Amino acid sequence: MKDRAKVICHMMTTIDGKIDVEFEPSADYDKVGDEYDRLLLSYGQAYGLGRATCQSDLETDLSKYKGVPATYEDTARRYPEGTIICVAFDRWGKLRWKNNVMDCAGRRMPIVEAVTEKCAPEFLAYLNDLQIPYIVAGRDDLDLELFLQKIKSLCGVETFVIGGGSQINGEFIRRGLADEISIVVAPAVDGTRGALTIAGTDDLTGFPQYYRLKDVRKLPCDGLLIRWSK
């Protein structure tokens, strides 16, 4: 392994393996969700989400940033000890933000964007204006291993938690970068055909990936924690 952050893919699913449920959860289901959040905050120093998971309906006219100085140099730096960073993977600069923090797992996390050189300079100027740091991790597409090296060297992140959606999880797993998979199983069956699972990608290069069982533990309110490692 190169000198990079360790990766834990951490997800919550139903008994039938679904991650994007549409039913009205029970109180016990919500309590298992609270345990999922607690584990997330205990695993690492940064938590990552794919673009679709972070997508909002906000609109911003980037034309006002035309000509504003912005470079394709990393602006992410170390945060005070105890800070958990929320990383948004946004290869082409499509996300729009209200501010530079995200409410996640009952905690306010500073946002860091992972981008590529395909992002317009106006988008980088927009991030600078909102004081959202970014890591440039690739020219045409995201180089996830480079990202893991940079988030460790720039931000001091030893363990990075990737928490969805299905596409970005699948990219980490198929490239052999998910060192551990942590699944919190909630006591419900969704039953929907074709619903999203923890990993799904159109590019199956590198699959299947194999893991060894590390731990199984009963959680409060009839939940279950299962952990596998490479």
TrEMBL record:
Pathway: Cofactor biosynthesis; riboflavin biosynthesis
Gene3D superfamilies to which the protein is assigned, alphabetical: Dihydrofolate Reductase, subunit A (3.40.430.10)
Domain Bacterial bifunctional deaminase-reductase C-terminal positions: 6-219
Entry coiled-coil feature ranges: none
UniProt keyword Transport, yes or no: no
Keyword entries, A-Z: NADP, Oxidoreductase
InterPro entries named in the record: DHFR-like_dom_sf, RibDG_C, Riboflavin_Biosynth_HTPR
Protein name: Bacterial bifunctional deaminase-reductase C-terminal domain-containing protein
Annotated source species: Pyramidobacter piscolens W5455
Lineage: Bacteria, Thermotogati, Synergistota, Synergistia, Synergistales
